[in-house]
Amino acid sequence: MTNSPALLLTIVQSILPILVTLGFGYFAAYRKDFDAQQAGVLTRLVMLYALPLELLVSILSTPRGQVLAAGPVAALILLAMVGGYGLIFAILRGLLKRRLGEAALIAMTITGPSVPFIGIPVLGQIFGPASSVPISIASLAMNLVQLPITLILMGHDRGSNHRVGNDSEARNDFRELFGHLIHSCREPVVWVPMMALVLVSAGAFLPQFLKGSLQLLGRTTGGAALFASGVVLFTRQVKFSPLVGVIVSVRNVVIPGIIYALARLWHLPLPALQESVLTMAIPSASINVILAMRYHVLEREIASVLFFGTLSSIFTMAFFIWLTGA
Questions:
Q1: What pTM was computed for the model?
Q2: Which cell locations does it reside in (predicted)?
């Protein structure tokens, strides 16, 4: 290929900053400059302010026609994240007889890409402002579907609620689900991109003098989030195991491979194929480590997935960048 050096340079420029920033976070924790609690403060800054501002600016900077034409991308991402979650959970519970909480956490770990942390620096560099659309779709799928369901199932497995009778249990389940959904909708990372999508669909745009003001904090999203993830990784003793290897392989290779095959089968336009495949090629989200620590379920394994999945993503994402021609 005549453009092989340029392609290699693009891949390195897109993915290497992830590992470097994670490494700085890991080194900072090793030097005891930051601990897990302080990393949680950085994560809170990202999720409440930096990421919503980044998504707001990016979406309102995306042409209206591009947003309205995002249906195929949304369909593939939702199929992978919501449909894949249900399928993997059913396999883990029905065939492999995993505990309820373990099955839910593994399903979310496999089907939930780290779009807020890794998607911003990687997809943003490849697709520019257009990357905000798949990032927003994946963020909404995680916060409105995957996270509430996982919290409920892990709460059940923990035995935090004692229920009597099927009718009472069903009512409590519904109230719990509804409560998690309401809580999720109040999070800025959920309602801000939804508002921005509505505004840009109606023809609104962001004045130039406001764009720079909002981006000043928004641009810290990728770096701060990855740095915090590096700190968290140091606090857990990661170890490779067959379970970790399977989860990383399915997350980083199998799921984006299936999305690529479906996109080719449905003859989707090249931009839609690239955006959906590379969004689902992003490694597992660090929120899973937080859930594992909160409920004391597979803590070491999920932290190991984050470490080895992110480390191997420099090769797996490079492959899918090459495969899709992004």
A1: 0.75
A2: Membrane
